[in-house]
Amino acid sequence: MKSIRLLPLLPLMALLALALPAHGVEHAHQHEHEHGHDHHAAESHATWQVPADHVRWTPDAALLEGMARIRSALHDLAPHEIGRLGPARVIAHADRIDAAIQYLFANCKLEPEPDAALHHILAALMNGSRALHTDPSDSTPLAGMNAALRHYAELFDDPASAPPH
Q1: pTM, two decimal places
Q2: What's the Cα-to-Cα distance from 28 to each of 4, 53, 94, 111, 148, rounded to whole Å?
Q3: Which residue of 47, 68, 138, 157 sits 20 to 30 Å from the alpha carbon of 54, by its own alpha carbon?
Q4: How far apart are CA 138 and CA 94, in angstroms?
Q5: Residue 61 pLDDT > 90, yes or no?
């Protein structure tokens, strides 16, 4: 039943997966619609670069709400908790992340440049969620998902996100 809720997102998820560069998520100015790239690269978070002169974008209310939901679910999925939670609870938290992403796609309205950057962040989160659904005992995807949240905090002026260093 859970996969039925995600069916409307499959075409968008496929497009986002294709939009990711082969060697990691590049600078936020990169156009989001490049095709033919490896979707697993989103977890290669070490290549995320934010220009030194970047002025953090202002998130809209929907973005603030959706990212708060994602942060909450990821907080509950701390790597040391994965083994204690059990597969059903890990999947339930991954479902919360998926629902928050679906909420963002339906409600968040940004200018093209921050929107493209956000799509890269959301694609990394979707890849992590998909990996958690595949193997709920593996905490490895959490590193990439948490890196996506740090990247979000570098790009967006969200008071609830940790400020960039």
Answers
A1: 0.71
A2: 32, 13, 25, 12, 13
A3: 68
A4: 13
A5: yes
